[in-house]
Amino acid sequence: MISGEEYIRTLNKKSVWVFTKQQVSKFNEIVKVTNFFENIPDRENINIEQYFTEHHMEYGIKTDRHRTLVIPQFFGLITKTPFYQRGGQYNKEKLTAVFDKLKAINPNLNLYEYNKIITEQILKFKIHAIIDTTNNNKDYNILPVIFIYKVLKELQTRYNIKKVSIGHLYTYIMTCKKYSQWEQAVEYIKLNSPVSEYVRRYKSSSRIISLIRNNINLFNITSSDISINPDFDDYFNHNFMQKYDMEELNEILLRDVDYSYFLYNIQEFDINLIDVPQKEASTEENIAIQEKEIIESEESDEEKDDNYIAKIDNINEFNVNPDVANGVSKIAPAQYNELSISKKYRRNPLLGRIAIQNAYYACENNHEHATFKSAKTQKNFMEAHHLVPVKYQQQIWQKYNINVDCVENIISLCPTCHRAFHNGTKEVKAQLIENIYRQIAPRYNSIGFGITLDEVKKLYKL
Q: For residue 129, what pLDDT is reported?
């Protein structure tokens, strides 16, 4: 690791975590803007920018700048596609499952539950997220609240350092690009390394700290220093930091479409960092929650379809902007350590939902195959299947530069055909693969995926 002085020399005036230029408001103000968006008539065809300017006062929104809509997008209440391009997409965007959940809770009757949803969204926002047209933070895939807490907690536990100066916060914490750099930040601060000459500029341009301070109470923040709020420390550590694999949690930031699913759907963190904790988790609870992961991952040797299929069925098609699937085949999959005991491969339920929608809720092996109506979607119940299994994604990427967790590789199947793919005889599987391959070959061609029918069969050991 280089010295603190050498690290500072790698920084420039734009190295700090940057939030959108729009005014940072409290979450309840952001909900107002989302309510406004929900009530815009004929959203797909109206001039939303003009409508916002003319009607914002009716919803108690002080500014007439339509780009205020980017704030609820940042917090996962309205979709944003594509993430990093400026404006022009509001007519296509949808309200999310998170906003649906917020609407279902009356804060006057159940404020604690309402604040749990707010807390979850604050924990989920990332750098780089939603819009960054100047690409200042293009390579910064980090969850700021979690990262700041991790560094402060390690300093407190290891070295009894309970407060960190604002200068050190901006210099060594808020310039990190990935979660694994927390140890580096701890070391620099422990050694009381010098602060950057850009700290004053960082404070005026970042806005991250005001966003955190305005919405949750995890930290005590003054003009001179930051520390963990002792009222929330053990509660957050036991019920969140020890509950999830932080390295894995941060990996889901790498593809826009994976972050979309994470941000727009309730992950049930079950954490409230606004109200004083109601109770401490028991020892038995702590042991149990450490065995659970935030987003289940599929093991390479066996696809466990039940969770994946259930998650797909839980996604409301009215919350989905299918444009989020564009180009995801060209994004490299996460690299896994060859020495790890168990490799894990994720499948994004959002892509499965889009693939089934694209197939009009029909079985792509045979459109006449009967199924039943889903209680969740009120549509024909279909299951998503990757023709090229996700467990082969590393070798497929190395050969073809294709991420197989993409809509072009996902097929909509009735439950019977899906079971046949997994449990049928070799003859049955071969016939299914041949039939499906012929149908989706044009999709493969559209993304430059040159895998042959024989290669696909070999992946199924046929």
A: 66
